[in-house]
Amino acid sequence: MQDFLTFKRMMTPIIIQVLFWVGSVFYVVYGLYTMTQGGMAIIFGLLMVILGPIFVRVVCELIIIVFRIEENTRK
After folding, report:
1. What is the pLDDT of residues 33-46, one digit of tens each?
2. What is the pLDDT of residue 68?
3. Model's pTM, two decimal places?
4. How many helices (H) and strands (E) does the chain have?
5. What angle do CA 57, 58, 63 make, to 5 degrees?
6. Are 35 and 42 in contact (CB under 8 A)?
7. Rounded to whole angstroms, how far apart are CA atoms 46 and 50?
8. Inter-residue contact 60 to 16 (CB < 8 Å)
9. Distance (Å, rounded) from C-alpha 35 to C-alpha 37?
10. Whole-angstrom Cα distance, residue 73 to residue 32?
11. How many Cβ atoms sit within 10 Å of the Cβ of residue 53?
């Protein structure tokens, strides 16, 4: 608890993990919804289901890299 109160332990990486899961679920659900519209929307929905979570993962990893650099710099 002391590390948390003195900002030695960052809370943001945990929040980023939660945002990853929320973003991934959003893309999958919205992609499935888009696929029900028919026509070309099936392809766009399928791409959203496949590429959406990958995109969210890459963005989250880029943010986490900043925090890892900070941790290594502190050491």
Report:
1. 999 998 999 999 99
2. 87
3. 0.80
4. 3, 0
5. 95
6. yes
7. 6
8. yes
9. 5
10. 43
11. 19
